[in-house]
Write a structure and sequence with these properties.
3 domains, Rossmann fold, 20 helices, Glutamine Phosphoribosylpyrophosphate, subunit 1, domain 1, alpha+beta, about 600 residues
C-alpha cells in the first residue's frame, strides 16, 4: 500500500455516501496502481497498491488492519520464537496484536504506519514505526478523524480548515523543515514516530513507545566485536529487505553506503540492477560504472542531460505534490529517475541514512544548517534564538507578522523540549538527539514520500536492529563529537565500510571513492593510511574547485520553473507577497537556493489548494 485515506465519524454525522479517490488527482493518472475502497457504517477508506496482493488489508470480527508501508519481525521476536526476521502482512499483524495487544510493537520493525479500525466499537488505533520517515497525516476535529498519506486529500475532504500554520512556516525558514508533528496547515498534524494513537468518541490518546534517548548507551562494545556484529546485522538486513521481490534496483553512488549494499547482496546478478544519477561525466556516474564493470553486474545510469531538462518542470511538480510540499523543487530528479527505472522493479534498495548514523558532525549542511548549529552550540540558547528570529526577518521571505506569531511556541518547543529536558546531557549529545529526531528524519522523509508512488524504498541502514546496535558501538557519530578538529575521528565510521568490503567483496576496497581514496587505504597502518587519504582528499578538492558540482546543475534547471511560478499568478495566501519575486528579479535567491526552492514549492502548492 503506497497511498491511504480514511475518514471516521465519531459523532452523529455519518458522512453520507460521499466517495473519495486518489485517481481524481491528475498526478496519479499515469501511475501503476489498483485502488481499493472499504465502506463501514461510520467510516470510509480508500487505498492504492501497485498490484492486487491482498497483503496490506485484513479484516476479522469487525477489526480491520490497514498496512501502509512494510513491516518485519525483529531480533526481539527472534529471541522469543527462534524465527529469523521476516516480512509480515496485515493478517500476521492482526495475529500479533490479538496475542500481545499494543506490546506487539516490541517485536516488529520496518517503515510503516499501521491503522487498526474496530468497526464494532468505532475506534481506530494508528501505530508508527520507531524512526518513521514514511508518514501519514491527520486532522481530528469535532468528532471527525481524517487520516491520509496525502495532505491534499485531507483538505479536499471538506472537513478541515485551510488555515496556514505560522509556527510551521517560521520553523521551515529557520531549520529547512518543520519541527515535531506540525505541518503547514494549522489543523493537520503529522503522525509522530514511535507512537500509538487511539481515536474514539471520547477523544484522542497518545502512547509513545520509543524515543530517541533510548539510542544512547554509556557502555559500548569493543571495536573488534562491533565490526563483527554490525557487519553481520547489515548483511542480514540487506537480504531480508530484498527477499520478497524477484528483482530489485540498487542505488550505487561514488560513496560508501550503496557500495556496502552491493557487497552484501546475495541475489543473482541478473536479479538486481544498479543505478545512479548525475550529469554526463559525473563522478557519481563514472565511479558506479567502474564498479559494475569490474564486478560484471548490471548498471543503468540516469543521465541528467537535455532530456532531463525537458522533463524537469513536470517532475518538479510531481516532487512537490507527492512530498506534500515538504520537498524543494531541487528533488525533481527522483520522479525522473524512478519513472525510468521502475519497469525493472518496483522496489529499490538505497544507502540512505548510513553515513548519517555513523559520521560525527563536522560541518553545517542540509540536516544541520547554520542556524541549528549556532543554536545548539550556544551557551545562551534563549538569546541566540532571539537573534535568529531577528535575522530571519531580515532575510525577507515571510511577512514579519508570521514570524512574530510563531516565536513563543518555537521558544517553548526548543528550550523546553531540548535544552531543559537534556540539560544534563551536554551540547553534543543534545544536538545529536535533535538531529536524529528532527533533521535526519525530516530530510529523508522528503525523498521517501516522493518515491513511494513510483517504488517501495528499502534502507538497510535505518533498520531498528541496526540503529540500536550501532549506538552500542564506538562507530556511532554521537560519541565522536564535532569534528572540524579531528579528521581521524571523522574516518572512524568509514572503517566499518572498509571491513565490510574486505569480508564480502574485496574488489570493492580497491576502487576509488568520490573522496579520492580507496576504502582499503583506511585499513593501512599509520602513517600510510593518513598519507593515502590525504593525497586523495587534496586531489578531490582540486577537482571540485575546477569542475564545481558535476552531479547537478540546479541553478540552470530550476530557473524557468521558478519564473513560471512567479508569473502565473500572485501569492494567494499573502504569506510571501512579492518577496520571492523580488529575490528572483535581483538574483539574490541564488545565494541560498535550497531555502528559496523550498518556498517556491510552498507557494506553488498553496496556490493549487
Amino acid at each position: 500500500m503506497f497511498d491511504y485515506f480514511q475518514i471516521v465519524y465519531f459523532g452523529k454525522n455519518s458522512g453520507g455516501n460521499r466517495k473519495y479517490s486518489f485517481l481524481n488527482n491528475p498526478y496519479y493518472k499515469n501511475l501503476t496502481s489498483v485502488e481499493y475502497e472499504k465502506e463501514f457504517k461510520n467510516s470510509y477508506a480508500v487505498y492504492l497498491e501497485r498490484e492486487k496482493t491482498g497483503k496490506n488489508y485484513f479484516a476479522k470480527d469487525g477489526v480491520n488492519i490497514f498496512l501502509f508501508g512494510t513491516v518485519y519481525t525483529n531480533n526481539r521476536y527472534k529471541k522469543l520464537t527462534g524465527e529469523s526476521p521476516k516480512i509480515i502482512n496485515a493478517e500476521m499483524i492482526y495475529g500479533l496484536h490479538l496475542n500481545s495487544g499494543d506490546k506487539f510493537t516490541d517485536n516488529i520493525k520496518g517503515s510503516f504506519v499501521i491503522t487498526i479500525y474496530d468497526e464494532n466499537k468505532n475506534t481506530i488505533k494508528v501505530i508508527s514505526d520507531r524512526l518513521n520517515v514514511l508518514p501519514l497525516y491527520y486532522s481530528f476535529k469535532e468528532g471527525v478523524l481524517v487520516i491520509s498519506s496525502s495532505v491534499r486529500m485531507i483538505l479536499e475532504s471538506g472537513q478541515v480548515s485551510k488555515e496556514l500554520n505560522h509556527t510551521a512556516l517560521t520553523e521551515q525558514l529557520i531549520f529547512d523543515f518543520t519541527l515535531g508533528t506540525k505541518t503547514y496547515y494549522k489543523d493537520i498534524s503529522r503522525i509522530d514516530n514511535g507512537t500509538i494513537y487511539e481515536f474514539s468518541s471520547a477523544g484522542k490518546s497518545e502512547n509513545r513507545y520509543w524515543n530517541v534517548e533510548k539510542l544512547y548507551n554509556d557502555k559500548l562494545f569493543s571495536k573488534k566485536e562491533s565490526l563483527e556484529m554490525l557487519g553481520r546485522q547489515l548483511h542480514e538486513n540487506t537480504n531480508l529487505y530484498s527477499f520478497d521481490t524477484d528483482k530489485i534496483l540498487v542505488a550505487l553512488t561514488g560513496g560508501f553506503d550503496g557500495r556496502a549494499n552491493v557487497a552484501m547482496l546475495d541475489k543473482k546478478k541478473e536479479d538486481f540492477l544498479c543505478y545512479s544519477y548525475g550529469m554526463p561525466g559525473s563522478r557519481q556516474v563514472e565511479i558506479p560504472k567502474e564498479i559494475c564493470g569490474k564486478l560484471k553486474i548490471n548498471f543503468s545510469p540516469v543521465i541528467l542531460d537535455e532530456e532531463y531538462e525537458k522533463e524537469h518542470d513536470g517532475c518538479a511538480l510531481e516532487a512537490i505534490e507527492h512530498s506534500n510540499a515538504s520537498a524543494p523543487i531541487l528533488r525533481s530528479n527522483y520522479p525522473y529517475a524512478y519513472k525510468k527505472l521502475n519497469s525493472f522493479s518496483k522496489t529499490i534498495m538505497t544507502g540512505l541514512f548510513g553515513s548519517e548514523v555513523m559520521r560525527p558532525l563536522h560541518n553545517a549542511g542540509i540536516m544541520v544548517n547554520d542556524y541549528s548549529e549556532k543554536l545548539f552550540l550556544s551557551d545562551s540558547p534563549a538569546e541566540t534564538l532571539d537573534g535568529i528570529f531577528e535575522d530571519i526577518k531580515k532575510k525577507n521571505y515571510l511577512d514579519p507578522k508570521i514570524i512574530d506569531d510563531g516565536m513563543e511556541e518555537i521558544k517553548r518547543e526548543l528550550l523546553g523540549g531540548y535544552f531543559e529536558k537534556y540539560k544534563e546531557r551536554g551540547k553534543v549529545l543534545r544536538f545529536f538527539f535533535f538531529i536524529i529526531q528532527e533533521g535526519v528524519r525530516k530530510y529523508f522523509s522528503q525523498e521517501i514520500q516522493i518515491e513511494r508512488v513510483y517504488v517501495t524504498t528499502r534502507f538497510p541502514f535505518f533498520d531498528d536492529d541496526f540503529v540500536e546496535l550501532m549506538y552500542k558501538t564506538p562507530f556511532a557519530g554521537m560519541y565522536n563529537g564535532f569534528l572540524g578538529k579531528s579528521k581521524f575521528k571523522r574516518r572512524k565510521g568509514q572503517l566499518l565500510y572498509a571491513h565490510i568490503y574486505k569480508r564480502f567483496k574485496p574488489e570493492l576496497g580497491k576502487i576509488n571513492l568520490d573522496r579520492g581514496y580507496k576504502p582499503d587505504d583506511l585499513l593501512k597502518p599509520f602513517p600510510f593510511n593518513f598519507i593515502s587519504i590525504y593525497k586523495g582528499v587534496k586531489k578531490t578538492a582540486a577537482y571540485k574547485r575546477a569542475s564545481g558540482n558535476d552531479t547537478f546543475n540546479s541553478e540552470k534547471w530550476t530557473e524557468k520553473f521558478i519564473s513560471d511560478v512567479l508569473h502565473e499568478g500572485s501569492d494567494k495566501t499573502g504569506v510571501f507577497g512579492n518577496r520571492l519575486k523580488e529575490k528572483f528579479k535581483d538574483k539574490s535567491y541564488l545565494k541560498d537556493l535550497l531555502k528559496y526552492s523550498h518556498f517556491i514549492s510552498l507557494q506553488k502548492y498553496f496556490n493549487s489548494i
